[in-house]
């Protein structure tokens, strides 16, 4: 299992904390008891979960010009027409994907093109599947324009647990569909805003995978 680079520090600190807890428990009581074994079991579970969370599964991604891939692994929790107020200032189709703590949290570019806009906004930490989290929570917004001049907006949104959003985008970057866009730590959400004439190819409740699931045709 490959571990994503964003997890290295967290995994190392978790390992140090676990070793410290084991040493302290044995200093307090040198004789091994049932409490020790319960503690070891809990600490092992925590460490394995952290490793699992930061996994980065190998995926063969085949670019599909004219189509939009999901930017995240997770469940489609919203799909509606809404006014995108931050950049486009017009009505667009919004697709929202919620990432549970068990989802792969590596985000990928849904289309190939040029990054025209990147903005990080501070905010609250409401539960990520709530509609208000799109504009109230801490977030990164990224606008990508394809060769055929179709522009879409991808918004990484922090959740109630996620407190760090990582984006690898800079304005002017030339990006490829399926490349790494960024990483969000722990439960969170991705919103994708598409032109109204995009042909949507998924429905609310579907499970999608970043760089693999086609969500729309432009």
Gist?
The chain has 218 residues and is an alpha+beta fold. 21% of the residues lie in helices and 35% in strands. The strands form three sheets. An eight-stranded antiparallel β-sheet has the order 9-5-6-7-11-3-2-13. It has a three-stranded antiparallel β-sheet with strand order 1-14-12, with no helix packed on it.
What does this structure look like?
Helices cover 21% and strands 35% of the residues. By secondary structure, the protein is of the alpha+beta class. The chain folds into 2 domains: 5-53; 67-217, Glucose Permease (Domain IIA). The strands form 3 sheets. An 8-stranded antiparallel beta sheet has the order 9-5-6-7-11-3-2-13. A hairpin with a 5-residue loop joins strand 6 (139-145) and strand 7 (151-158). Helix 1 (8-28) packs antiparallel against helix 2 (34-53).
List the topology elements.
Blueprint: H1 8-28, H2 34-53, E1 67-69, E2 74-84, E3 90-99, E4 106-108, E5 113-121, H3 133-136, E6 139-145, E7 151-158, E8 165-167, E9 174-175, E10 180-184, E11 188-194, E12 199-200, E13 207-208, E14 214-217
Antiparallel strand pairs: 1-14, 2-3, 2-13, 3-11, 4-10, 5-6, 5-9, 6-7, 7-11, 8-10, 12-14
């Amino acid at each position: 299992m490959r571990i994503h680079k964003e997890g290295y520090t967290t995994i190392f600190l978790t390992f140090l904390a676990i070793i410290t807890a084991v040493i302290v428990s044995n200093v307090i009581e040198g004789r091994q008891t049932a409490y020790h074994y319960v503690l070891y079991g809990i600490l092992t579970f925590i460490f394995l979960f952290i490793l699992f969370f930061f996994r980065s599964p190998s995926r063969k991604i085949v670019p599909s010009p004219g189509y939009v891939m999901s930017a995240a692994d997770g469940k489609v929790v919203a799909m509606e027409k809404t006014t995108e107020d931050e950049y486009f200032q017009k009505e667009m189709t919004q697709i929202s994907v919620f990432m549970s703590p068990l989802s792969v949290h590596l985000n990928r570019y849904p289309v190939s093109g040029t990054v025209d806009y990147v903005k990080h906004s501070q905010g609250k930490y409401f539960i990520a599947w709530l509609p208000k989290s799109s504009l109230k929570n801490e977030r990164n917004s990224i606008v990508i324009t394809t060769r055929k001049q179709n522009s879409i907006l991808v918004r990484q949104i922090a959740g109630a647990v996620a407190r760090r959003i990582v984006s690898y985008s800079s304005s002017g970057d030339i990006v490829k569909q399926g490349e790494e866009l960024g990483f969000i730590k722990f439960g969170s959400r991705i919103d994708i805003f598409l032109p109204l004439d995009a042909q949507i190819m998924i429905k609310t409740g579907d499970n999608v995978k970043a760089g693999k699931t086609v969500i729309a045709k432009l």
